[in-house]
Write a structure and sequence with these properties.
6-stranded parallel sheet; 18% strand; 3-stranded antiparallel sheet; alpha/beta; 9 helices; 231 residues; elongated; Rossmann fold; single chain
Length: 231
């Protein structure tokens, strides 16, 4: 942690890569752990697919609305310290999370790689709709279209503008800090391939993950680790 503190203080261009483990301390379950989202239903990847949305919209809606929304969740110390770094150090953030907590914490220079659950729109007329309206009914009152959250589903691709913005951030970084992700989900995991050869990589996780040559691990609970950081 002392070495990480020194890295942060000396770095000129910090990029945080975050995943579901950043939000579990806020009460939002991750995906693949024993108590994760994917253990609550059979075939969850289908339920979060484009096919399900198009062919069985009610099934898609019930899974998303009942299992993915946590509107009372609040940013934890990890979100807050990262947000502070985005203000003080102009750090950048690329997150897999769709829960909006980085935004709630006031993070600047943020790429929500897989979108945001709280941005909802009508597939028929394109109008933006408050997520609370969506949680009451999947049908758009205005035109009768089916509403959907602006998240990337299975069988969908990352928007080119989002992908290019993330690649640019990574390629310009001199310090990459990975937190709360196993780096197994692509194309997010592939972003580190675009790093500079001089960039330092450090991951904070309770379990060891695969890192490129030269990467370092801090095997510690991320909450405890970020509590120790002075940002």
């Amino acid at each position: 942690m002392t070495e990480l503190q020194k890295m942060i203080e000396s770095a000129r261009n910090i990029v945080f890569l975050t995943g579901a483990g950043v939000s579990t301390p806020s009460g939002i379950p991750d995906y693949r752990s024993k108590s994760g989202l994917y253990t609550q239903k059979a075939n969850p990847e289908y339920l979060l697919s484009r096919t399900c949305l198009e062919q069985e919209p009610k099934k898609f809606y019930h899974f998303v609305s009942e299992h993915m929304y946590y509107p009372s969740a609040e940013p934890n110390v990890i979100h807050k310290k990262i947000a502070a770094a985005s203000h003080i150090c102009q750090a950048k953030v690329i997150t897999q999370n769709v829960d909006g907590l980085h935004l709630s914490a006031g993070t600047e220079n943020l790429v929500e790689f897989h979108g945001n659950l709280y941005q909802v729109y009508c597939q028929k007329c394109g109008k933006q709709v408050d997520y609370r309206e969506y949680l009451k009914n999947m049908i758009h009152y205005g035109c009768g279209g089916i509403l959907r959250p602006n998240i990337v589903l299975y069988e969908e691709t990352i928007a080119q503008a989002v992908l290019h913005a993330a690649i640019k951030m990574v390629s310009q970084a001199d310090l990459l800090i990975i937190c709360g992700t196993s780096l197994r989900v692509y194309p997010f995991a592939g972003l580190i391939r675009y790093r500079s050869s001089a960039a330092k990589i450090i991951a904070i996780n309770r379990e060891k993950i695969e890192l490129p040559s030269g990467g370092s691990m801090i095997l510690e609970d991320a909450v405890h680790a970020f509590e120790k950081l002075h940002i």
